[in-house]
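Retro notes
What went well: the complex prediction finally ran end to end.
Inputs used:
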Amino acid sequence: MSHQKKRVGVFSLTCDEGCSIYLVEIFNKKLLEWLNKIELVYFLSIKDKVKIADLDIALVEGVVSSQKDKEELEKIRKNTKTLIAIGSCAITTQPSGQRNNFSSEKLASIKKDLEKFDYLPRCLSLEEVVKVDDKVLGCPISEENFIKVFEKYL
Ligand code: SF4
């Protein structure tokens, strides 16, 4: 039986996308080594054109800040065997979920905007919404940790 390439998707919820930018560098470095093992089927910039389906590994950065993020994450979870949270935002909500630390006065002052844009009352980590299979800590992720975690699933 021929070895099937793992179908990998990279997804960005609310954040500065710093981890996925860093991922591009890691993928560039490991390109030859991983060429026969992975197929990158979904990556931020092409996300509107590709249907999320039948993934083996989903790498997700950012916090769940809005209803849209929540639905996207649930959809990713349904369509992947393994979901890996990448970066401290996805794992702890910080730093992108800094509004979780706002005072009640400050939160009250932005309440209308939060409601208008369908934001959740607080930012959630991935794990608060779906099952997460593995995590790569760091802000941005550490290359060494990423490779160690990612290669477990290849
Ligand atoms: S963990 Fe840091 S680098 Fe990664 S998305 Fe969040 S803020 Fe950006």
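What we learned: Residues 15-16, 18-19, 61-62, 87-89, 95-96, 139-140 surround iron/sulfur cluster (CB under 6 Å).
What to try next: split runs per interface for comparison.
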